[in-house]
Automatic annotation (TrEMBL):
This is DNA-binding response regulator. InterPro entries: CheY-like_superfamily, Sig_transdc_resp-reg_C-effctor, Sig_transdc_resp-reg_receiver, Tscrpt_reg_LuxR_C, WalR-like, WH-like_DNA-bd_sf. SMART domains: HTH_LUXR, REC. Transmembrane segments: none annotated. CDD domains: LuxR_C_like. Residues 3-119 form the Response regulatory domain. GO terms for biological process: phosphorelay signal transduction system; regulation of DNA-templated transcription.
Length: 201
């Protein structure tokens, strides 16, 4: 049996994915998490073979989850299923050790097949995403700039961000300024939009 854990913040989709995969004779769903943080805790407990995750989730994104699993040396293989065909996301996913990257509008049978391929040591990337990844520019942001810009895009002030990630307000402003400059944006809102659209957040 291939033991999988699913991380997805939309409850309806989480339930649908679990129900779909339970129809497969060789796949067992051992956990369902509404965000990356809970998924990480459940991975430590259940040690699934494969983690199926969305990218954009509260508390911890799917990409951050993949990076955390790799850092902890957990043997789970990660498959991302997302609505976002953005080259920046795919590049960051592959850099984080993700083994599969599919779009949510792919046929249902492709998902189970991808899980089996990844479990067997292979890699699966949706063809349209592979083509897209070559057309996008390189991600200019550092991890800290990305983190600060993401929080700014959620409407948080520099003071809020400083409290949340334990930096001084001046340091947060410096990171924002660097990100705005690198993206040739007029302000933090525009910088957030440009980075998000490129898949760099």
């Amino acid at each position: 049996m291939i033991r999988i854990l699913i991380a997805e913040d939309q409850a309806l989709l989480l339930g649908a994915l679990a129900a779909l995969l339970r129809l497969e004779g060789d796949i067992e769903v051992v956990g369902m998490a509404p965000n990356g943080q809970q998924a990480l805790a459940m991975c430590k407990e259940h040690r699934p073979d494969v983690v199926l995750t969305d990218i954009e989730m509260p508390l911890m994104t799917g990409l951050e989850l993949a990076a955390a699993l790799a850092e902890l040396g957990l043997p789970c293989k990660v498959v991302i299923v997302t609505t976002f065909a953005r080259s920046g996301y795919l590049r960051r996913a592959l850099a984080a050790g993700v083994r599969g990257y599919l779009l949510k509008d792919a046929p249902a049978e492709n998902l189970a097949a991808a899980i089996r391929t990844v479990h067997g040591g292979g890699r699966v990337v949706a063809p349209e995403l592979a083509l897209e990844s070559w057309s996008g520019g390189a991600d200019p942001l550092s991890e800290r700039e990305r983190q600060v810009l993401r929080l700014a895009g959620e409407g948080k002030s520099s003071a809020d961000i400083a409290r949340l990630i334990h930096l001084s307000e001046g340091t947060v402003r410096n990171y924002l300024s660097e990100a705005i400059s690198k993206l040739n944006a007029g302000n933090r809102v525009e910088a957030f939009r440009l980075a998000r659209d490129a898949g760099w957040l």
